[in-house]
Structures are given as structure tokens and as C-alpha cells.
Specification:
alpha/beta; 6-stranded parallel beta sheet; binds nicotinamide-adenine-dinucleotide; 18 helices
Length: 438
Amino acid sequence: MRLTMIGTGYVGLVSGACFAEFGHQVVCVDKNPDIVARLDAGEIPIYEPGLDTLVARNVEAGRLSFTTDLAAGVADADAVFIAVGTPSRRGDGHADLSFVYAAAEEIALAAPDPCVIVNKSTVPVGTGAEVEQIVRKAVPGKAISVASNPEFLREGSAIEDFMHPDRVVCGVENPGSGGHAEAVLRSIYRPLSLRDIKIQFAERETAEVIKYAANAFLAVKISYINEMADLCEKVGANVQEVARGIGLDNRIGPKFLHPGPGYGGSCFPKDTLALLRTSEEAGATLKIVEATVAVNIARKQAMADRVVAACGGSVDGKRIAILGLAFKPNTDDMRDAPSLDILPALQKAGAHIIAHDPAAMSAAAPLLPEVEMADGAYAALDGADAAVLITEWNEYRALDLDRMKAAMAAPVFVDLRNVYPPADMRAAGFSYSSIGRG
Ligand code: NAD
């Protein structure tokens, strides 16, 4: 199949490279010339483990190429995937669909006849129908069908997720009736269906809702365990054991039950908000999602308060070392990272912040003014009055406790990811606080 990916960011680049690895011929289009120039020069503009070799291998094999020229990129495509951003619209939390709609019209004008436009961006229910109207208006005579194929990959393990997904969801008109879009999507995903991975076909609207329902459910799990952690702290229970105890129940499952500083990233915060706006418009209140969002917002401020408390009630004039800035390990993505709320709150309380992150410091620097960036974890800890572990990168999991204590001005460690055993930290002489472990 000849496939074109519009938008070569976290989703577009990973999906494009993985489709090429399946054996398809893929053109990745991005309107940002810097991204395309870097890819053409063999550089990967984002941090995603394994992506450099996957891209290089498929470029070398002649199956993957990059361009800023959308019209040329789609000219002979069997299917064109839209993988552009759908950020929160400033002020109201609706998904900003301007990039999707602009891309749709441009694609329609340049696409061959027939062709399938497949929406991979996360978009509110009804967007597929709207894209179809844009296409019909732009090119009334062309046989272009519009499908939905939401993406479930996680940054940090994106290639593994794309190559070995739990399922693939496709939304088409009249699923099961053998339409053109369904046939094309079945061919595209044949390498996965041959491995018995479920390709679920549903109506387009249903596929659109599946994506938001999945993300909101995972966000609910996180806010739920975070509230449970607060309860555990009050009653002397251990939330990690609670999570294990409930997670071993197959009906619940162990994933997304790790208490922490609240969810962040490029998806959950904006998708839960957009889902709430959709539900309000549809007149179907989602109280559980509303509570999840409120709990998460409050959580980030509560984390800053926790650091202040660990420092004896004030961080004014204190040097606070931050380990980890990205919203999770193995990514440089800073979108809605909890650090973006926690660090300014500490600065407002008078702290001087020195931070380290293995991959996200250059993305973080412009977003966190006055934060000093350190070359390594121990450099950040040097002379610090307290350390706060925000992102559980592997390199922070085995810090030398004696070296760390010797480097710091005061042995105060706030572990927002429960990486260290409390007994070890106490034995090493730290004043240690973590989440929901008494
Ligand atoms: P991103 O910001 O990393 O990438 C989007 C890219 O699209 C940018 O490089 C931008 O320059 C490009 N672009 C915008 N308009 C364009 C146009 N008209 N023509 C060509 N290029 C254009 O975004 P992302 O993180 O890859 O997310 C894309 C979509 O996938 C979003 O809807 C997001 O919610 C969804 N999603 C993201 C993830 C994730 O982990 N990042 C996971 C699942 C779904």
C-alpha cells in the first residue's frame, strides 16, 4: 500500500516508520520545514527509544521518505492519515480542530481518486463527519472516503505499542459491508491481523468515542489511586500494597494504579477536558470524568505543598533539586508535565530550583524560566536543601545514597514516584517522604 502521513510528530513519525516496517511505501509530510530537514539529514526530532534505527532502516530500504509538500506527498496515496495536533483550545478546553480541518481540505484537493482519508489524530465524536463535509465541498466528484483510526501508542514505548497493540480500532461507514475504506484498512493492518491481533471495525462515531472513553478511563484509574494514596496516608495503610491487592483482581488489572504527582502529557489532560466539553454539548453529564479532572488539578498543587512541608514548612531561599521534568520517563515531551505546575509553585514560595532530566531539559528550559539545568543528577543534588523525584527515569532508580547525602546540604528526599524503599532511605539517614506509604 502507498500511505501518506500528514503530521510527523510523536504519532505521525512512529506510525509512518512502523507502517514502512510492515512493508508499506510511506511518505511523511510535515509543514514544519525544520522537522523535515532534520529527518532528511538522518536526525530524529523527538526522543523515542528505538525510533532512530527504525527510521534509518526504512529510509535505507527506500520505503520511507519525508517532505513538506503535502500535494506531492498525497498524489498517489491509497490512504492518507491525518496525525496533526489537536491541542486544547485556549480558554474553553474544546479540542482545537483547526489543524485537522486545514489538512483535510488540502488533502482532498491533492488526493487521487479513489482514496481514503484516515483520521489518526484524537478528535471529538462527529469530526469524521465534519471532515467528510469538507471533502465533499472541496472536491464533490472524487470518491474519497473518510475513516477513523485512533491511536493508542504510549510515548516511551511507542514502537512496541504500535507493532504489538492490544487492538486496532477502525471507524468506517457501514462496517462489515465491504466498503472501500474497510478493505484498504484491512490491507494496511494485515501484518497485525496475521498475528491474531484484533482489528475492531465500528461505525466512525463509535471509534471516535472509543479513544476518549479509553483515555478518560485510564485517567480515572490514576486519580482514583491518587485519592486512595491520600486515604492511606491518613490511616496508616500502604497504597502500593493496596494497588497490588486490587490489581491482582482480573476485573481491575494492575496497570495505571501507580500513585504519583497526577497525570500529565500530551493526551490525558486535554482529552479529558475535550470529552467533558463534548458531553456538555450532548447533554450527557460525565460526573466521574469531571471529578477525575478536578482531582488531578488539585493534586499538582498538593505536591508542591508536600515539598514545602518536607522542608519544615518553608522553601524560601532554599535550593531544591528536581530529578525528572518530562511527564514520564523515556520521552522528552513536556506537554502538561506535572513539573510545569510543581516547579513554579515552589519558585513562588521562594525556592531556587536546579533540575535535571535525561532527555527533556532543552524542551523544558523555555517553559521553566529561572530554573537552573544541571548536567547530571548528582550535579543537581550538589548543595541542595531537598531533592524531589518527579519522573521515574531508570537512572534515578539506583542513585548512590551515600554520595547523594554527602552532596546535599540537607538530606531531605521527596519521592513523588515511590521509587525508593522507605526503610533504605531512613537507614541511609534521609528524611524521606513518598506517596501513600504512611
Ligand atoms: P505533535 O504536535 O507531536 O505532531 C503534530 C505534527 O503535525 C507537528 O509536527 C506539526 O508541524 C504537524 N502539522 C500540523 N498541521 C499540519 C499540516 N496541515 N500539514 C502537515 N503537518 C502538519 O502531535 P502528536 O503528539 O503526534 O499528536 C498528534 C495527534 O495524535 C493528536 O491528536 C494527539 O492527541 C494524538 N495522539 C497522541 C499520542 C501521543 O502519545 N503523543 C498518542 C495517541 C494519540
